[in-house]
Amino acid sequence: MDHNILRHVIADQHRIIKQAKIIPRDYWFDPQANYVLVGLRRAGKSTLLYKRAQDLIAEGKSWSQIIYINFEDERLVGFKINDFDDILSVASEMTDKEPYIFLDEIQNIDGWEKFARRIADQKYRTYITGSNAKMLSWKIVERLGARYFIKTIFPYNFEEFLAAKEIEHDDDTFFDTVADGKLRMAAADYLSHGGLPETLIYSDRRDYLESIYQKILLGDIIARNNVRNPQALRLLISKVAETLMHDVSYRSLAKAVHNIINKPFGTDTVINYISYVKSSFLLFEIKDYVAKFVDKNSTPKYYFTDNGILKLFLINKVPMLLENQVAIALYEKYRDYLYYFNSRKTKIDVDFFIPDEKTAIQVTYDLNERDYDREVGSLIKLAKSNIEVERLIIVTSEQEKVIEEDGIKVEVIPLYKFLLDDFVN
């Protein structure tokens, strides 16, 4: 690789980083560690690397030590694994001090993990991003060993969304009519359009979100996995969106798609396609806490990583957006320790259960008499069961109160306050 091209790429990245307006985010980097950042396309991984570079400069490092390569730069078309050494050569030309290596969207280069392991062994401090979970196949994780921390980057949480919109708040804000109203409006915006950072830039957010979805679908899923039936994949994702709030089996998804395309579409194909979609970070799943092992893995509940993308599939389905937003907030913090709870034996049906926190959560747009038994009754039954639970919450669109029944307290919390609760921050 021509060293002059690499130096131009690095110099241009320095200019971009210097000019970047960066919203503080709730991510911390150990200065002695190497990192691989993964997550949904346009969730802000590169911006976090910009922030890390800015922090290094603030600590007294020089720009010549910041070796930032973005592999989506068209000047690097044709870059191969054998060209990686040229990055180290250019670093030695630019500085005689410790370089900091930033490799952005590195999944575009086959065999990148071999170089990543070598430079970690050589004690280069390294930061890597990628949009595709194929980066994290078990073979690659094994090759990287303990040399890198893996950090999943999500779209803005509500705190970050408020910071990006320059909406300040504190404990007194809830008692100020005007300030509280701004928070409610921001929560409605966040619920409807999601947290991808660039949605705050564009006036036509739907067009922007549609373009991101198409890039994920065509580039991160179809092209990288050589999907043979793109039409069936599109329908499958749409059907998953329709089943939100409910557990769903691979078999039922296969049947639903088959009935539309009228062509063979088996369970094994559904399993493969769902794995591809999860690998693009478009979807995540939670499992039933009380289900048998086989059922845990075959009948999960699926949620979308961003509400704005989910809304592309929905018309007037605010309750589904509400539950999905709560799922995102909980999953970002609790990951595989987050479950739903559906016991056919006891008739207890709870949307979210975090056993380590002894907390159960229901989500309903409006808590009314018709849904009272399902929402409140299931929480009361759970509290009276042998399952240890201490905090019971119902997240609503606007309602707020405390329900006490048989000595058991249930907190009814509007979405905007829940998203600011320490429980999810």
TrEMBL record:
Tree of life domain: Bacteria
AAA domain residues: 35-162
InterPro entries hit by this protein: AAA_14, DUF4143, P-loop_NTPase
Residue span, DUF4143 domain: 220-363
Name of the protein described by the UniProt record: AAA+ superfamily ATPase
Species lineage: Bacteria, Bacillati, Bacillota, Bacilli, Lactobacillales
